[in-house]
Amino acid sequence: MLTVDDLDHFSDARLAHLFATPGSQQDPDQLARLARIVACLKFCSHLPDAQLLPGGGHAAQTLLRQALRSQRRGQLDGDGLAQSLETVLALLGAAARHAGESDAALEARNAIEAEVQKHAARHDADDSVDPQLLAALATGAFEILPTSELDELPEALRGFGRSGVIDLDLAVDIDGVTEMLRLHLALECSAWRWQAVGGSCYSRNGEPAVFLEPDEPLATSVLAGLALRNGRHIVDWYEALPASVCEAQSD
Q: Which of 89, 102, 131, 200 has CB atoms 3.0–4.6 Å from 96's, for a disulfide?
């Protein structure tokens, strides 16, 4: 049986002679196949067994190989790739979208998250009270969760000077770990944009809240995304989620 240590030996150029074909030049195709096998085995070595569906690891590897071949041959468009990745995540026991999230709701959320990422990327990470968190937003390593409490958003959208308080929940991937982030935003609708006001703060994994200045990049980037299409995207997404889903996520 191969161990992780064995896999490291396969990848170590200093030990390549141990795996060479005796008396002849190593076949390039064999080398390529070996590299792919090692990569797949290394990938699977990091997956908890309980997370996989029965046979999911092998099925996921097969599907990924098929998708990669099709993409390299120009036979896989963006929709096809997205579908392949959703299927792989399902095989690995992970959901690619929130429960009950329709295609239209998913499209709206993707647009919002892309806008947040774009604005976060415009800032220097050191300008933020939490450079690590801002860097994660700037690379798109996050998604908005249906546990968010956005009931006051429609009222805040009704005109200049309106205000509201919302709690936006994000799952953020940082250093290989998914953290739960809650942004408590007191916001005001101005003539051109939404802006955070006093009392806004955030908490990572339920830790004590850190208060935010109104011009904090974390707040301005997120609000830029929420204000997309005058806020209709985020409201449409929130209202499209089944109430049972939001309640179940909160529990």
A: 89
Token output for 111: 């647009």
Question: What tokens were used for 93?
Answer: 């026991």
- Could you give the CA distance from residue 123 to residue 138 in angstroms, rounded to a whole number? 8
pTM: 0.68
Rounded Cα–Cα distance for residues 123 and 134 (Å): 8
The answer to whether the beta carbons of residues 149 and 243 sit under 8 Å apart is no
Residue by residue, DSSP assigns 68-107 as HHHHHTT---HHHHHHHHHHHHHHTT--SS-TT--HHHHH
The label of the residue with tokens 């809650």 reads 182
Kindly report, residue by residue over 143-202, the tens digit of the pLDDT. Answer: 999 999 998 887 766 666 677 899 999 999 998 888 999 999 988 876 556 788 888 999
57: left (phi over 0), alpha (psi -120 to 50) or beta: alpha
* Concatenated DSSP letters of 125-147: GGGSS-HHHHHHHHTT-EEE-TT
CB neighbours of residue 186 within 10 Å? 19
| Whole-angstrom distance, CA of residue 25 vs CA of residue 11 | 18
CA distance 214 to 195: 7
Q: Where are the alpha helices (DSSP H) in the chain?
A: 4-11, 28-45, 56-72, 78-91, 103-121, 131-138, 153-156, 217-226, 232-240, 243-250
Instruction: Tell me the torsion sign for CA atoms 158, 159, 164, 166.
Output: positive
